[in-house]
Every structure is written in structure tokens, then in C-alpha cells.
């Protein structure tokens, strides 16, 4: 699928989506990730053909999507609210897209059974949606969107309505369905963890604009700007003034000449809290910072440290390791490895 210059304005004044460019490979799992109102649903609706682009092109298998009638687009869609038919049984819900495509009854039976097996709902085939849990309804929606072997599966916040524990389980199920069917997926979410764990590539959006496109590791470890760094987790964004970190009192360790050059050229850099290292400061350490807050978060402890410059940094230390714990008020020296500093 090839997306070029895709843009949408609802009011002719502001852009809900502005200039998406992206090539999606067959079988790829791409997640559009961004805060609420960033244009994710609008982008997905254009891919589905439910909204017409104000500008730009979408090509599916080399053909412009706009030229294809809905049934020939062969796209499966999972909505956040599931949109199941309440009066139909589970099996009939799943069979619906096959009926629409005039698939003969015998084939329908076979495909629905295979689909029920894929989402492990064989025992629930005759129930109505309201008799199912949220996770089970979600599985019906997934089965209905994939039973006709779509070339493309679109999902809008597929796990948004589920609680945390169930989201984890359903993430595994979606990954397994994707592997089994080999279908191309474009999914929309505002959940960083979901995007990181499921995607081959992530497209980050803010204010209708593409911020970064890359693999989960690229997005997380090499955020291209302060927005991405901050959105992907709490980031320390540090101004660079006259080629030096304005936060001061941070010991920068190791690193190549190239890494230092990149830092000097940047206006701002970011450092992940888990890469900020704290040590007890010696009595005469003029650069020492002070721990102003420490929060036990289970697997990690989160520290806020005020530096001599008045700037604050966040550090996160794993509780499983042998690392020293600090109390509020503790005097600490702060070290960051040069390669953890993202220009
Ligand atoms: P997201 O899914 O990331 O929350 P949306 O695509 O729903 O973002 O919305 C992006 C922007 O477009 C928002 O400012 C929203 O108010 C606006 N918008 C979305 N749908 C419509 C619509 N049908 N008519 C007018 N404006 C809309
Ligand atoms: Mg949305």
C-alpha cells in the first residue's frame, strides 16, 4: 500500500491530517500512534475509504483506492466499539461479510468454523454479543474482520475498551492472528506499550502531522524530536546552550567525537530516565544534585533530582538490581553516558 501526500480538512480551514507519506509492505503491522485529536482516526477512515481525502493518494496493489468500490478494496475493519450486530449470534456476526460477498453456504460454514477456532470462541457460537465479555466481543470483531481473508486489516483503538490485564492478553492474540494470517495491518492507538509490542513500524502523529516513522526500537531509542521523546515515555529534555548541556552538573561519560559533535549542534537533547545514573555524592562534590522526590513504582523507583543549575532531571532505577536507593534530600552525583543522549 502506498500513501502519498494524504491530507484531510473537514472545515476547509484546519488540517485534521496533513501530508502523510508512507509505504506499507505486504504483511507488515503498522501502528499509527498519537495523542487524542492528532488525526489517527481520520487517517484510518481515509485508508478504509469512509472519508475522502482532501489531498493525496492511496494506492492498494498499484490501484488508486478511490477508484475501487468498497467490496473490491477487500479491507477488514475493527472499530473501538466493536460495532457487532446485537440481534445476531456470534456465528452469524462472523458470517455476515461472507454473505455480503455471496460466498456459498458450505464455504461459509467452513470459514466461520475456522475463524471461531482462530479466536477460540467455538463454545460461544450461538450466543448473542451481550452475553459475552468485552474480550470475547473483541474477538468476534476480529473474526468478523478477517474471515474473508482481507488484504488489509484496519483497527481503531482495538483494545481501548478493555482493562489493562485483558489488553495484554488481547495483544498476544492480535500478534498471533497477524502471524497466522499474514495479513497487512494498520492499527491506531494512543497506547505506547501496545504500539511498541505489536508493530513492525510505528508512525507517530501530533496535530495531524507525521512526527516520526520507524521501528519500535528506533522510535523509543532514537526519538527524532522532543515531542516523540516525551510521548514515548517520560523524557528529560535538556537545552543545549553554547554547545553545552544547560542543565550543568551532569557528568557526561564515554562517547565518540561524533556523538559530542552532534550534541553540540543540537538545540535540545533528550535522555531517558532509565539511562540517568545516580550515585551518592561525596561530601566535597560541588556538582551534586538533590533528590527532591522519590516514588516507589514496583519494578522501578522514580527520582526527581534538582541540579545546581536549578534544572530538574528524572531518573528511574530498577528495584531488581543491586543499585543503591536514595531518600528525599539525598545528595547525588548525576552521570549520563554520551551515547544515551539523543540530539
Ligand atoms: P484522533 O483519532 O487521533 O483522536 P481524529 O482523527 O478523530 O483524531 O480528529 C482529528 C481532528 O479532526 C480533531 O480536531 C477532530 O475534532 C477533527 N474531526 C474528526 N472527525 C471530524 C468530523 N467528522 N468532522 C469535523 N471534524 C472532525
Ligand atoms: Mg480516534
UniProtKB/TrEMBL annotation:
According to the entry, every stretch annotated as the ABC transporter domain falls at 1-232
What Pfam families has UniProt attached to this entry? Answer: ABC_tran (PF00005), TOBE_2 (PF08402)
Q: Keywords, A to Z?
A: ATP-binding, Cell membrane, Membrane, Nucleotide-binding, Translocase, Transport
Q: Does the keyword Nucleotide-binding apply?
A: yes
Enzyme Commission number? 7.6.2.11
- One annotated GO molecular function: ATP binding
GO biological process per UniProt: quaternary ammonium group transport
A GO cellular component entry from the record = ATP-binding cassette (ABC) transporter complex
What reaction(s) does this enzyme catalyze? ATP + H2O + polyamine-[polyamine-binding protein]Side 1 = ADP + phosphate + polyamineSide 2 + [polyamine-binding protein]Side 1
Functional note: Part of the ABC transporter complex PotABCD involved in spermidine/putrescine import. Responsible for energy coupling to the transport system.
Q: Which PANTHER family match?
A: SPERMIDINE/PUTRESCINE IMPORT ATP-BINDING PROTEIN POTA (PTHR42781), SPERMIDINE_PUTRESCINE IMPORT ATP-BINDING PROTEIN POTA (PTHR42781:SF4)
Protein family: Belongs to the ABC transporter superfamily. Spermidine/putrescine importer (TC 3.A.1.11.1) family.
State what protein this is by name.
Spermidine/putrescine import ATP-binding protein PotA
